[in-house]
Every structure is written in structure tokens, then in C-alpha cells.
Amino acid sequence: MAATASRSTPSASPELFLDPKRSESTFEEIPVIDIRDARSSDPVARKRLADLIRDACINVGFFYIQSHGIADEVISDTVDAAKRYFSLPEATKLELDVHKTSNFKGYTALLGENTDSEGLGDLHEGFDVGWEPPIGLIDSPEANSREDGAMAGENVWPQCLPGYREAVLKYYHQILEVGKLLFPLFALALDVPEDFFDDKTTKPAAIMRLLHYPPQSPTSFETDPEGRQIGIGAHTDYECFTILWQDHAGGLQVQNMTGKWVDAVPIPGTFVVNLGDQFARWTNDVFKSTLHRVINRSGAERYSIPLFFGTDYNVLLEPIPTCVTPGSPSKYEVMTAGEYVKSRLEATYARSLIV
Ligand SMILES: O=C(O)CCC(=O)C(=O)O
Ligand SMILES: [Fe+2]
């Protein structure tokens, strides 16, 4: 179908989303978007912001956000917590081995994941956390009404690190609020009502990971000259979108349509946002779930914290009406978000070369 709508003059027409040019995107840079207007009640300002987000989602699948409102101290306390945890003896960390839980929470050792099916294991270790009420709010209505289906289960926490759980949950809940600000903007960007995701995101299905990447040593290139053992192998994320904090080490790369790896260089004061496969499913591939990887060649330890936002786990991943037309029919089998995420996690861990 021919598409004539210009991205700078958005319309409600589905043709806007079906512009063939969007799949030829050869971006060289990742846009930086100031999201201060996400908190504005001015519809014009919100629409302007949504238009910038739409452009990034259709052409790149990645963007940086600035003016997000999270204090540096909240971030640094969490990074310190991560450093303390990853410095523990391996045996202590393995007490919380992710394989001991049914919902993939806790510790993943170095090479414990193989994100790229062609890879030889990922050179990172991680600690996974799911939603739980903020400290002191055990009886929150959200906690009492959760139906997490395939992904149900509690977090696990190291008992030997005072303050760890507090720091991690404080960051988790603040970044969750940033995610909640973005969902209505994604809806606006898709020409559906701003509240489109409201009833689908009542119990945020949000997994957060603390990640530690040791520097990639020359030896790993000797044993793996083809570079199949890197920080995290080339992959797309599983949920709707990810908000990622990364330190100054660098190493995150994003692939454009020509196959070129573009560096997502660390920009102080920003988070990286990238779209995942649930959004590709919701939007019938109008929003790009872009391939990315990490190679830590900085010579220093690298730390990062992605938080993956999905819809509630019991919500069906069904294509958004503006993204489906007779000429562009729905591509994906409908399933719940929980079933989808669990199947992807199972596949990633099943490829692991260690058990
Ligand atoms: O550590 C990073 O910068 C990216 C991590 C990532 O892509 C992931 O965990 O899915
Ligand atoms: Fe990722």
C-alpha cells in the first residue's frame, strides 16, 4: 500500500504507520528526547513529545530520555548495592540461583545466559527483581490483586547485605513511575487514546536486572576469535519497552537496517529507552524492536540496570487497531504477556552452556 503521510504532520490514518520507508531506516545516531512535558497537562506539549517518540520508535527503536526526574543519589545507591552484591563469593551469590525459582528471580552467574542463539554464553552476571510493594506498604491494593499467571512468584534477597533490598526497591519504584509516564505517550504516538494502556498496566509486569560485565579480556578473543562470547549477545528485548541506566564504560551497540552497529554512548543524566518484542507484537512491527548487544572493551568493570516494562501478565498481546489493515494483516499469534515472557526466558536459559 502506498503511503503518503509525512511523519512531521501526523494523521490518524493507518497509512502513517505503514510507510514503507520506516523499514529502510539507516540511523547513525540515537535521538535524545527531553521528557519534561510527559508531566504536563498541556495537550499540545504532550502531542509534540509523542510525535518525537513516534519518530524514534518507527525509525530507530531506541532513544535517550533526559529530564526524567530521578535523583542521582537514588541511582548511585542502587549501583553501590549492585557492586556489593557482585563482590560476594560465588557460592553466596549462588544461594539465590535463578534456577531455584519458577519465575526467574535472583542470581544468574557469568555465562549463565546465552542471549544470542549463535553465541557461546554471555559475559555478564545478573540479579533479577520483579514487582513487590515499596518497603512499608505490604498491604497495597496492587499486591493483593495480582494475577501474574505464568510469571507468579516472589523476589529473593540476600540476607547478608543490609540496605540492599531497600536501595534496589527504591530505584525500582521510581523508575516504574517513569515507565508509567511513557505508556500514554506511546499510545498518543500510535494514534489511539492516551489511556489505551491504562487497563492493561494496572499491575506492572516489570522485571529489573542489576548487571555486571567484567572487562572482555584478550583471552576470550583467543578462545573465541569469532566474537561469539561477548557481554550480552545480539538480541531484542521481550517486553514492551526497556528503561536502561548504564555507567560510563560504554559498550552498548544497536543495529541499523544495513547491519551496522551504532554505539549507544553513555550520556550522563539520561536513560536509554528501547522497544521490545511485545510492542512489535502490539503494533504489528510498526514500532521497532531493535537488535542490540554489549561488548565491554573499556578495560573496566561495567554496570547497567535495565527495567523491562510489559503489560500485566494476564493481558492478551493483540495488535492495536491503527496498526492492522487489510493490506497489512496481523502477523503474530495472540497469547498472554506472561506466557510470552516466560517462553522467551525459558529459551534463553535453556541455551545456557552451564547449568
Ligand atoms: O547492559 C546493557 O547496556 C544492555 C542490557 C540488555 O540489553 C538487556 O539486559 O536486555
Ligand atoms: Fe536488551
Can you give a write-up of this model?
The protein is α+β, with helices and mostly antiparallel strands. The protein is 26% helix and 17% strand. The chain contains 8 helices and 12 strands. The chain has helices at residues 43-59, 72-86, 90-94, 141-144, 164-189, 218-223, 277-282, 337-350, and strands at 32-34, 62-66, 106-108, 125-129, 205-213, 232-235, 241-246, 252-255, 261-263, 271-275, 292-294, 302-310. Strands 1-2-10-7-12-5-4-3 form an 8-stranded mixed beta sheet. A 4-stranded antiparallel beta sheet has the order 6-11-8-9, with no helix packed on it. Strand 8 (252-255) and strand 9 form a beta hairpin. Helix 1 packs across helix 5 and helix 2 (72-86) packs across helix 5 (164-189). The longest helix is centred in the middle third of the chain and has 26 residues, at 164-189. It is globular, with a radius of gyration of 20 Å. Mean pLDDT is 86; it is low at 1-14. The structure holds 2-oxoglutaric acid and fe (ii) ion. Keywords: Iron, Metal-binding, Oxidoreductase. Residues 1-14 have a biased composition (Low complexity). This is Fe2OG dioxygenase domain-containing protein. Belongs to the iron/ascorbate-dependent oxidoreductase family. GO terms for molecular function: metal ion binding; oxidoreductase activity.
